[in-house]
């Protein structure tokens, strides 16, 4: 297949590109060119700012693709530019969305808890928070794209030493050092997904499946910050310490996994279309070892 990945130079996007290459697909990477990658001459590269609609149109005017993976779409304006650039030029569009499109609830969250086909799009807003930006990007794509669209609603992504966000390493390092981690007075469990598994799902959705629509991307199991840190503690031989953050925005030790709402994402739809998620804690020893300094084993 001839495949374009918008973004894809780090984290699970990098894993996706390596998987595509390993299976013999022709891959083009579109990015601003600010992040180095390890793909060498195995990929073609297009340098473009995806927020610049005119640049997107010019960059892809003569191109067509079997699949486009959009890893860095955050607003309806991004979606609008993509629809203009790829209308009539792509057979399938896989958009990386987020579980933050959901408001959160104590019960399991399903794809039906957010409907992008009826959500209002405001292209004139000056700013969006992360969740609303993704909601409106999904809405624009599903309501206006002339090509088939999939929105993978990705849970909190965890990985080892290639997690550029530093979120997982934050917890490993502070547990290992015996530093107290800031949490909320009420703990809320959330869903996680490993960088390996989200890359595998994206590959499945783009290359092996004809599914269209929104789909949750989450491993089995739900963990609060404290329960996750206790699992990390069992691997590093430390009992984690916690304190209730009086002002999370000003607490440098406040956990980036401490959500104010419960987000337990149900992954049954993925199973029904042929993709199974394991319990992500099977990867936990490897991820902790990578953060603590062990070499990586694979992409």
Biggest β-sheet description? 7 strands, parallel
Mean pLDDT metric? 94
Classified by CATH, the class of the largest domain is Alpha Beta
* Uncertain runs: none
Q: Architecture of the largest domain, CATH level 2?
A: 3-Layer(aba) Sandwich
Question: What is the helical fraction, as a range of percent?
Answer: 25-40%
> How many beta-strand segments?
14
Strand arrangement within the widest β-sheet reads 3-2-1-4-5-7-11
Count of separate structural domains: 2
Count of alpha/pi helices: 9
Shape: globular
- Can you say what the CATH homologous superfamily of the largest domain is? NAD(P)-binding Rossmann-like Domain
Strand content: 15-25%
Distance between the termini: 21 Å
Please identify the structural class as seen in this structure.
alpha/beta
The helix/strand series, from N terminus to C terminus, equals EHEEHEHEEHEEHEEHEEHEEHH
- Briefly note the CATH topology name of the largest domain: Rossmann fold
Give the radius of gyration: 19 Å
Domain NAD-dependent epimerase/dehydratase: 3-203
Organism: Alicyclobacillus fodiniaquatilis
Protein name: NAD-dependent epimerase/dehydratase family protein
Pfam family, one: Epimerase
Describe this structure in words.
The chain folds into 2 domains: 2-156 and 194-217, NAD(P)-binding Rossmann-like Domain (Rossmann fold, 3-Layer(aba) Sandwich), CATH 3.40.50.720; 158-191 and 220-264 and 278-291, UDP-galactose 4-epimerase, domain 1, CATH 3.90.25. The chain has 9 helices and 14 strands. The chain is globular. 32% of the residues lie in helices and 20% in strands. α5 (167-177) packs across α7. The chain has a 7-stranded parallel β-sheet, with helices on both faces. A 3-stranded mixed β-sheet has the order 8-10-12. The protein has a two-stranded parallel sheet with strand order 6-14. By secondary structure, it is of the alpha/beta class.
